[in-house]
Amino acid sequence: MIETARLILRPPTPADHAALFAMWGDPLVTADLGGPKDQAACLAVLERHRGYAPLGFGVVERRDDGQVIGHVGLKPGAPDTPIAGLLEIGWMIGRDWWGGGYAPEAAAGWLDWAWANRHEAAVYAITGRRNTASQRVMDRLGMRHVPEMDFLHPKYPDDPALADSVTYRIDRP
């Protein structure tokens, strides 16, 4: 478990499923992640992320009220991308909490954990070129765009706008 000023970052439990399913089912939240997922697909994501231990990819819980507001953490970069096998950070925050600074706070907590517990020289993040909100989070974290690693994501072969992806990197302090 990781604690920040306003958040607890922890593994998901079955009690978190409703909140996570609502986020993954929201077309606006998932617009740059391939669109909404049904409950079966959400459970598959949770199972896949559980396999990333000890890296950890879990829920974002607000300390003041226990509300689950997102999903964030570290994982191996996806196959068939320029960051395959490299340490990747990713996040998703529910729409009701957009603009509250929760994504950079949660991601910064995981980056601190990575520098203290991992050996990698850098952490990477990818997102759609059109996802300027995630790129602003990356900028706030001190990540830098690595244009030579931009790519067309193979998960979205039928949607060139969604496939057009950018890569960011932050080096170990």
UniProtKB/TrEMBL annotation:
* Key words, A-Z: Transferase
Q: Which species does the entry assign this protein to?
A: Sphingomonas endophytica
The name on file for this protein is RimJ/RimL family protein N-acetyltransferase
Q: Can you give the residue ranges of the N-acetyltransferase domain?
A: 7-173
Q: State the Pfam families in the record.
A: Acetyltransf_3
Molecular function terms from GO: acyltransferase activity, transferring groups other than amino-acyl groups
The superkingdom of the source organism is Bacteria
